[in-house]
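All the exercises in this workshop are built on plain-text protein records. A record pairs a protein's sequence with a compact description of its fold. Backbone structure tokens are a discrete shorthand for how the chain folds in space. Once this layout is familiar, the rest of the handout is easier to follow. As an example, a complete record with its sequence and its structure tokens follows.
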Amino acid sequence: MVFEKIQEIIADQLEAEAAEITEDKNLMKDLEADSLDAVEIITAIEEEYDIEIPEEAAEEFTTVGSIVEYVEKLIAEK
């Protein structure tokens, strides 16, 4: 569920096919997101789930899966 929503957010932001976005994809290297894209993706995720992702945590994200894992953890703590 969380993966599918994040996949949709990333696809919308990067104007990519959702099927191309898998948990093992690297946002910058594989999906060619730039730093502005990354910030906008994180902001959209924060708004979607009513959570706050600290900048230090966001800088550690390497793959789509790492974002999903972090968001799932935050949701579980709510």
In short: The helical segments are 2-14, 35-49, 55-60, 64-77.
